[in-house]
């Protein structure tokens, strides 16, 4: 019987890969990797390792989750050392928990190797501290979509005014609804917000706006996935602390903030 390592590859910058993740990749016989994994990281795989792409696009799964689960069990039972390589952290909207459950049910040994999640790293690369003594004492990491049976509107009622900093993953598709629900449930429409596209990579683009201009900014700036949304007063620090990009979009807003 082999073993499976469910590994977080980090947010995109290959230098943010952890040492433990690197060791797992270097020893793996099989690596099943996602779309958001930086391809430079795969160069650390040993010669002869099988690299299997499990790419997932919004609303389109090249490989279904059930198939991925099957491969993890299949290769481990063949005695292989398997790495399931996922962008960010496998337990933060990465479905790593579901994969670990499958392995446990089939009696396959596994380890979880945490990764740096984009919710913290991309914000930091944009000069946005998700907490700050003067602006935020709490932060929530939120998915921008829910399973159909869940009540999307009820979730956002609690988030609108109860959390200082909102970090929203996968929120582009439902940005109009998110903007509406935040304002309807008491969030100040002028609250600073930011979109961070391909955070920590050489394609990173940060666009500043406000809660009331979220949807309009997506349209005018043609913002696409993968993009993170950060909402809260901490966004105001971006104009001062941004160190990774030469300049922010919407300089007028930067000055106002």
UniProtKB/TrEMBL annotation:
UniProt-recorded Gene Ontology molecular function terms: uroporphyrin-III C-methyltransferase activity
Keyword presence, Iron-sulfur: no
EC number: 2.1.1.107
Domain Tetrapyrrole methylase: 3-214
A Pfam family assignment: TP_methylase
Gene3D superfamilies named among the record's database cross-references: Cobalt-precorrin-4 Transmethylase, Domain 1, Methyltransferase, Cobalt-precorrin-4 Transmethylase, Domain 2
GO BP terms, alphabetized: methylation; siroheme biosynthetic process
Keyword vocabulary terms for this entry: Methyltransferase, Porphyrin biosynthesis, S-adenosyl-L-methionine, Transferase
Superkingdom assignment: Bacteria
Top enzyme category: transferase
CDD domains membership: SUMT (cd11642)
SUPFAM superfamilies found in the cross-reference section: Tetrapyrrole methylase (SSF53790)
Family from the record: Belongs to the precorrin methyltransferase family.
Name by which UniProt lists this protein: Uroporphyrinogen-III C-methyltransferase
Organism whose genome encodes this protein: Bacillus licheniformis (strain ATCC 14580 / DSM 13 / JCM 2505 / CCUG 7422 / NBRC 12200 / NCIMB 9375 / NCTC 10341 / NRRL NRS-1264 / Gibson 46)
Upper lineage: Bacteria, Bacillati, Bacillota, Bacilli, Bacillales
Gene: cysG
